[in-house]
Structures are given as structure tokens and as C-alpha cells.
Amino acid sequence: MTVVHYLNQFFAGLGGEEAADHEPIRLEGPRGPGNALVAAGLQIDLTVACGDDRFALDEADSLATLLAWIEEAGADVVVCGPSFGSGRYGYACGVLARELGRTGTPVVAAMTPDSPGVLASEGAAYIVPTTANVAGMRDAVPAVASIASRLAAGTPVGSAEEEGYLPRGLRVNARSEALGAERAVGLILAKLAGDVRTEIAPPTDRVAPPDPLADPASAVFALVTEAGCVPQGNPDRLPTRHANVWLRYPIGDRAELAPEDYLSVHAGFDTTEANRDPDRLVPLDAARALVQAGRIGRIHDEFFTTTGVDTPVAVSTRMGQEIGAEIRNAGVDAVILTGT
Amino acid sequence: MSHTRADLEIAAFAIDEVVEGALTGRDGTTLLVASPQLAVGAGEPALAEATVEVVRPGDRVRITNVLDAVVPDVRADDPASSFPGVLGGTWNEPSDPRIHRLTGVAVLPVCDWEASGHVTADEFPPSYVDMAGPGQDRSPWGSTANVVLRCVAARGAPVAEADAAIRHAALELARALASTTLDATPTDVRRVGLPDTSDPGLPAVCAILQVASEGPLTDTFFDGADLRELMPKVIDPVWLSAGRLTNGAYDWPGVRNTTANYQDLALVRALQRAHGETLRFAGLILAPGYLDTAEAKRRGAEASAALAAELGAAGAICTTFSSGNSHTDTMLTVRALESRGIATTALVCETNGGLTDHVAEADCLVSTGNEDELVPAWTPERIVGGGNGDAGRAVAMVHYLGSCVETGDGAWTAVPA
Amino acid sequence: MGIPTVFITALPTIAQMVGANRIVRGVAITHPTGDPSLAAGDELALRVRILDRAVDMLASEIAPRTVWEIDG
Asked: Which of A54, A89, A122, A338 to mutate to test the interface with C (most CBs of C within 10 A)?
């Protein structure tokens, strides 16, 4: 049996954020956490790695390269990660899993249940849930090794509940004891008695697109960001990750967000270029130009900021609702939101 | 508005063995079928060939190009009025209608429309019934003895004529088989039809049966006439048992309704059983799906809801016909009902991509299964009905006749994994 | 009634997955509304172009979870 392991630049030992643009690379045997997997009983024949940013921005080519290498190796199972709470790494694991699923190659991954990789995988992977940070490695490794070994050997793997992996969002057919018609009568009677039950849960939270602006030239726009843009010195101590607060700062008469006045404290990307010109994150100078040109009415006099790193969906939702309420109360007509 | 007319009596005769022999008849629970003598399709210029073959559960046979399933029924009080319209008779408000019905056996018309040049390659999705193997239990007709009516349409015959000839032959065969019981005394009898009065304290629940009629090979028929102009209307559930509603739609076999479904609609049976106990069965509405425009869909949904309100329904159960935009008709109907304060439950099938359509008011759904799920590959010993039958290849659930039917006649459902 | 919001990000696929409706593909993860390889004047012009596109999107009817490129 042949096992291939996918890692990002950091876990493959290629470097940190500065190596996030690393091209796909093939490495013999296990690397980084792969060694822990071997110690847990899973052989690893080949490691393939790619920088998180490279995958995100050059997805088609990176994916094609990785898939070709995995096919050439004749993988019986592929392990992706663990990616823990990383958004980009998780996403890459998820997309790779999805594509491998289409070729019938079993995949095991490990990430937080909130990771974008879960949705991206479209049910193709057995995903072991982990903590957001690397301290969860000790628990994740044996679970991943166990499932992956059995998949490679063709031994059956139990249900999500039995094995502890995340439900894959699949809907599998099963025989009910009652005909659909009988179940329908049961459900309508229950509903009429006030007990609403369903066999199909509604699709996950979606908001219909709000109506478009009728007249941008008279509208008020607010700038919001998750890029962690704050005044120099981070006076209110916006966390660099796991933020569960958002902050607001007056814009006043500023023509731009100057580097001597602002910086980004976001721990999820290389902030070097952004710190040379924070308008690269919160485009105030360009917004001023549009006001000057009569294209937009005016800019709301505060910008809203948080750090979108390892932020649970529930927290993001709450912050969005709170910022939204402030914006509505302030009579803002539209929002320009920037993300990294 | 009373929806109940005369009661219809249905006498069921169980068949547990079908043998081919020199004559057509019945001996206890054994049905004898004289295939060559049945002269099916005789004198039909639009049919080049029509033959009968018996296939049994356990046979390593995949039946292909299956168009429909028909329960052998005959009007014992007036055999000429069986399957009104299609077989020439009429339903003329009989005072004492009685049906003799065979259980355990079905008529399956099969026809390869592509071989006769009536449809282009891949225009029609495959339609299978497996009599053994991993797919056997995906179709209810994997467990019935099937009298397969193999038809070959005459090349160049107009498709509507060839289809009418096949439907005529299939229903006539169904009647002929059921007619083997005409001299028998029924022992297993039930009545269809409701007492007009029942406990007014029980909630009134109506059913909305969605059908579609979009042209030859995708039609539904009432008294033999297509329903292309159908607008929602209240119908008598007795009419379904009497064979007035028949199927002529042959695509996506897993999710659209067969004639057999209409003859013995589980939803009507369930509501009638519950009538007077836990609910009042307020009535049955026949409604069109696949309406062409958003406006037409909205009007159709409103019309169904208005009828449900006229019936005095507190609750409604909505069925769906097939996949795709008919699900929008269902969802809009749910919304229209709920906006009138009528609680709804709807039956829909699922796909690998989730629900085809959804509205916030659809908070109470029955899943009739995932039509995309792959059934493991099987290589039958024999294929009846033509084509290669995808032998040795995994087959999606939707290709098995009746697998995910959204009238609630099946027991398949989808669960999380 | 919601407030129209346009999300400028270099990861539009993730934005679609979480349900953002108006999405403009940004330049890069590390500088969604900038390009350090350009001279200052050109970079500002690019930024104005990005924002103009964003304003266009805010003023347009769109299907749910739509992504626009900077130059459409």
C-alpha cells in the first residue's frame, strides 16, 4: 500500500509566512507531522507540499501538479494536514480532498469543524476534528493514522459517530420502517399539534442579496475590514488571532491611512507590504478620490476593524450583526468590506 | 363541496406464483399466463412488435427501458369501464363500482424508443428494474412477479400514436390478467370512499397530488386525455383507484409517478385510515408541476392554496413529480398554503447537492431518498428490454423505477453520514 | 432590508462558500486593494479602479454569491 501526505510550507519545513508562496514540491518519505503519523503506525511513502498562498492564488495549476504526483505514486490513501484552524491551509486540504474524491482516492484530513476546508471538501474526506492550534496534534495523529491505515487496507471504516470524524454531509439512502406517505401523515399531525419536525434540514444560513444602491453619488459608504488594521501601537489591543472583538476608529479628515499612523496586527498573513501602505487593506485614499469625483456621496466617519484569524463562525456572525446594527443606526447606505 | 361519491370496493387476490402456459387463468394463488395467446398490441400499426414474458424475483435479470408499472385491475361490475378512456369505456358515476385486483404481480411495459428512432441517443435516462443483486430492493417491482410487455415501436410511426398503442396494450393486459378473478368470490375486500361526517374536533388535512404533462413520452392522462392544460382541481380519490389517472411519462424513473402509484396511492390510503381517528381527510387536489414561467408557477401555487382553503383544510400534504423545477412548484405551493395559515408537509427527493429548491416556510419535509446515490455495479445473466443495461457499472438510484417516488409510496429515505 | 455590502478579497471561493453575495476579487491576500509592484501613482489608480468596480457592484442587481473581477 502507498500513502501520500499533503502538508503546507510550514509543516513541511520550508519556512513560515515568507514561504507561503512556495510552489508545489515532492519530498521523499514523511516530513514534520508525518513522522508522528509513522510513529502511530501509518507508513508514509511520499510527502507533497505547497505554500498556502500559492495554492489559494494559483489553484488550478497547483492542484493539477499535486494530483498528478499523487496519481503517479499510486496512492491508496492521502492524508491532508492536520491543518487545525488555518483558513488557507484548511481550504487547500479541502479542495485537494474534493478532487481526490472524484478519482475515488480515499482522503483523511484533520481540522477545526469551522475550517473552510470542511465545506470545500464537499464530503470527500474523513475529517478528524481538532483544536484550533497545534496543541491538538497529540490527539489528532492517532485518529488520523487509524482511519488512514484502514482505508489504505480496504478495511471498513465505521460511521461518523462511531469513529469520531465529522459527518461528511452525505445523505445516504436507507429503508424506513414506514412508507413516506405514512411519515408525511405523522409529520403533519405533529406540526398541527405544534411540534415541527423535518427529515431534511433547511440549507445553511443564506442571506438574499440586498437591493442595489439606487444612487451611489448620494450614498454614504462605510469601510470595514478583517485585516486587523489599527492605529500605531494597537492602543486597544486588538488580538492578532482569535479576536472576539471589533473596534472602530475615527477617520476625520484623513486623506489616506498613512503607514506612520496605522498598521496591521493580523497574524494570518505577511503584513510587510500592507504596513508600507495601509490603504492596501482599507482603501481610504481611493474612496476619497471617488467622493471628489462625485462617484460616491461620502465616507462614514469611522472605519470598523477586526482580525479574521481562527475566528469561529459563530463569533464572526455575532460581530457582523453588531457592526451591522451600528452601521444601520448611523444611516450608512453601503459597506465596502476588505479581507485577506 | 363533497368529494365523496359512491364507495368503491377493491377486492385483492394474492398471487405468489406466475407460470407461463397454454392458457391465461388463475388457480388459487397461481397466475397462468399464455403469453403468445394474449395477442397484445394486435392490429396496432404503430407497434412493430409486442410480446409478453414473465420475469420473477430472484431471476438474475435486469429489465431495461421500463416505461411504467401497472397493477392488474378490472372493474368487476363493468369490465369494459376498466381504465376509462384508454380502453374505450367511461366512468359514468356507477352506483356500485367494484375492482378486482391482483397483488404480487405487475405489468411492466418496456420499449426502447431510441432503437426505433423516436428519441435521440441519451435523450432518455436509463430505466431499470433488477430482479436480483444489489439493486433489487431499489425498485418495488424487484419483488413482484412481472409480466413484461416488450414493445417495439414502428419506425416512422408518430411517437404519440406509438405511445398510445403501448399504453393501450399495457392496460388491456393488466385488465386481462385481473379478469382471471371475475368468477371468484372475494375474501379480502376494502372500501375506498369516506363517510361524509366525522368528528369536527379533528384537524382537516388535504393532499395535493402534483403531476406533470409536457408532451408525448412526458405526459399524464386522465380518462386517456393528456393534462397539459391542467389547473389545480379537486378530484375524488375514488377516481384514482378506478384507473382514471394513468402515466405516460417515461423519464427519470426513480422520481416520477407510475400508473401503479395512482391506482393504489399510499397517501390516500394513509389519510383514509387516519380519517375519523386522528384527522379528517378534507380532500384531494390534482395540481400541475413544471409550469413554464415564474408567474404561472405562482398562479398555480395560489390556486392550489385557494382550493385547500375552500376544502377547510388546516393542514396539507404536498407531493412532487420528478426532479428539477417541479420542486419550485412544490415550494411555492408550500409558501402559498402557509401564508393562508395552512400547515404543510411536503415530500421531496434529495440530490448529492442537497435540495433542488427551498423556501423558508418548508420546515417540515419528508425525504424520499437521494436520487444521486450510486447503487453498486451488477452484471445480470440476462437483460430484458434491450440495450447494454449498464451491466457491470454502478447505477444512480434515480434509474430504478419508483425508487425515490415523491408521492410517498416508497420506504426509501436519506439519512446523514 | 439588508445593507448592500461588497467584499473585496483574493479568496472569492471561500467568500462564496460562507454566503457573501457581492464579491470583487482582490489583488492578493497580503494586499487586496494594492499592488506594491506598481509605482505609487499607478497603484492609486488601480485602487480607484477596484473601488469603482466595487461601487458598480453595489449598484447592480446580482444573483446570490456573485464574483466580479476587477476588470469586467
From this structure: A338
Residues in chain C: 72
Structural element, H or E, at residue C37: none
Are residues C61 and A212, on separate chains, in Cβ contact within 8 Å? Answer: yes
In a domain, residue C13? The reply is yes
Backbone φ, ψ for residue A318 (5° rounding): -65, -45
pTM: 0.72
Which residue reads 493514522 in cell numbers?
Answer: A145
Of A256, A268, A258, nearest to A91 (Cα)?
Answer: A268
Q: What is the pLDDT of residue B68?
A: 98
Count of domains observed in chain C: 1
Domain holding C56, by residue range, is 6-68
Q: DSSP for A249-305? A: EE-TT-SS--TTTEEE--TTS--HHHHH-GGGTS-HHHHHHHHHTTSS-EEEEEEEE
Separation of alpha carbons A286 and A199, rounded Å: 50
What confidence tens digit (pLDDT) does each residue in B366-408 have?
999 999 999 999 999 999 999 999 999 999 999 999 999 999 9
CB atoms within 10 A of CB B183: 8
Nearest to A189 by CA among B235, B168, B344: B344
Mutate to test the interface with B, among A188, A192, A204 (most CBs of B within 10 A): A188
**Strand B204-211 to B280-288 pairing:** parallel
Residues on chain A bordering chain B, Cβ-to-Cβ distance under 8 angstroms: 159-160, 167-185, 187-189, 191-192, 196-200, 202-203
> How many Å lie between the alpha carbon of C59 and the closest alpha carbon of chain A?
4
How many Å apart are CA B349 and CA B84, to the nearest integer? 31
- Does the residue C64 lie in any domain? yes
Average pLDDT (C41-66) is 95
Domain boundaries, chain A: 3-163, 216-338
Tell me how far apart the alpha carbons of residues C59 and C62 are, in angstroms, rounded to a whole number. Answer: 9
CA angle B287, B289, B290 (to 5 degrees): 155
User: Is 60 exceeded by the pLDDT of residue A282?
Assistant: yes
Q: Where are the alpha helices (DSSP H) in chain A?
A: 33-39, 52-57, 59-73, 87-102, 116-121, 137-153, 160-163, 180-192, 272-276, 284-292, 313-329
| Total residues belonging to chain B | 417
Closest CA to C27 of C42, C19, C17: C42
| Cis peptide bond N-terminal to A216, omega within 30 | no
Rounded mean pLDDT, A97-124:
91
CB proximity B413 to A under 8 Å: yes
C1 domain residue, yes or no:
no
| Contact partners, residue B285, CB within 8 Å, separation at least 6 | B206, B207, B208, B209, B232, B233, B234, B235, B304, B307, B308, B311
